């Protein structure tokens, strides 16, 4: 196990664990056996004598696993999960519509300065998002620890690169969807992504977010299914190492020279432009749009998505 002495988002020194449960005894042992039953090659024997631990950052309120499995364990673990996955996942129409509108929101912002923004899907999984970006005519690059989608995406003209060597100052928009919660060292990755952006480029971070996580941790039910309101999936042992608050993401991005952009309706606005956007007339329009649910929101419930711009 690797002990994280600092908050993975803002870098504040870690305090004591607020949760400490041995991996090889109930409730965590029972949770692992049940949740990973479809993946029999997951080997949790190496976690014997280790504990699942959570800490809460006193500064940014990020709740994170204090002691995390090492790279060798995580590599084997995600390899065992992939053996049961089919290539490419289906996607429903509502989700597709949200992805298209979100991407157009970002592209319209960027197109004030750049005609054809270059995009990178970091942690692309089956490649659905990368294929969408390519379909919209954007020069598209994809990467993932697993190269299962590489050949399929290359055949569609999408460039494939190594996640460990993403280059410097070439890209205008980086999509990360359900990536940062898995990272042992998010600071290292956000710095690398920021380096890959050209000035003015945008990084999107989409992560799980359970607003009632603290209350659930007071009366934890580790047997709750992922779909249950009592689910603790936001801090799933081994997998979800970081549960960020929006202040955590702002602090994380700031350390890499990135400032937030805020979706107002379906338009991205920097902090300096918020006042201009919140005139009385615009507030009324926004209120009506909210009532009609015609405003930006992440597709998945229990997630949050933030956008950051490089300066
Ligand atoms: Zn913090």
Polypeptide structure, described:
This protein has 311 residues and is an alpha/beta fold. It folds into 2 domains: 2-87 and 213-235, no CATH class; 97-208 and 244-310, Rossmann fold, CATH 3.40.50. It has helices at residues 28-35, 71-82, 93-110, 128-135, 150-155, 186-196, 213-218, 246-254, 274-277, 280-291; strands at 2-3, 19-22, 51-56, 63-65, 67-68, 119-122, 140-143, 159-160, 171-177, 197-208, 242-243, 258-264, 267-270, 303-310. The strands form 3 sheets. The protein has an 8-stranded mixed beta sheet with strand order 8-7-6-9-10-14-12-13. Helix 6 links the parallel strand 9 and strand 10. The protein starts with a strand and ends with a strand. The mean pLDDT is 93. Zinc ion binds next to loops.
């Amino acid at each position: 196990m690797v002990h994280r002495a600092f908050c993975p988002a803002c870098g504040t020194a870690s305090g004591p664990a607020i949760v400490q449960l041995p991996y090889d005894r109930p409730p965590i042992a029972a949770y692992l056996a049940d949740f990973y039953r479809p993946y029999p090659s997951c080997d949790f024997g190496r976690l014997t004598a280790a504990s699942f631990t959570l800490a809460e950052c006193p500064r940014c309120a990020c709740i994170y696993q204090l002691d995390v499995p090492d790279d060798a364990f995580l590599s084997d673990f995600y390899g065992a999960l992939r053996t049961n996955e089919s290539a490419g996942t289906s996607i429903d129409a509502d989700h597709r519509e949200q992805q298209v509108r979100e991407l157009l929101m970002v592209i319209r912002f960027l197109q004030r300065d750049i005609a054809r923004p270059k995009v990178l899907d970091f942690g692309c999984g089956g490649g659905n998002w990368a294929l969408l970006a390519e379909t919209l005519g954007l020069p598209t690059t994809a990467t993932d620890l697993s190269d299962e989608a590489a050949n399929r995406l290359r055949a569609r003209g999408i460039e494939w690169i190594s996640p460990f060597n993403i280059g410097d100052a070439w890209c205008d928009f980086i999509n990360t969807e359900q990536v940062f919660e898995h990272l042992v060292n998010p600071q290292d990755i956000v710095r690398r992504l920021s380096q890959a952006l050209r000035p003015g480029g945008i990084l999107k971070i989409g992560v799980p977010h359970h607003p009632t996580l603290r209350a659930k941790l007071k009366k934890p039910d580790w047997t709750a299914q992922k779909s249950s309101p009592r689910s603790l999936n936001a801090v799933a042992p081994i997998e979800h190492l970081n549960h960020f608050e929006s202040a955590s993401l702002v602090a994380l991005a700031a350390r890499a020279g990135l400032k937030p952009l805020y979706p107002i309706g379906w338009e991205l606005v920097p902090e300096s432009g918020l006042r201009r956007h919140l005139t009385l007339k615009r507030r009324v329009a926004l209120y009506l749009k909210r009532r009609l649910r015609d405003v930006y929101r992440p597709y998945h419930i229990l997630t949050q998505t933030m956008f950051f711009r490089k300066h």
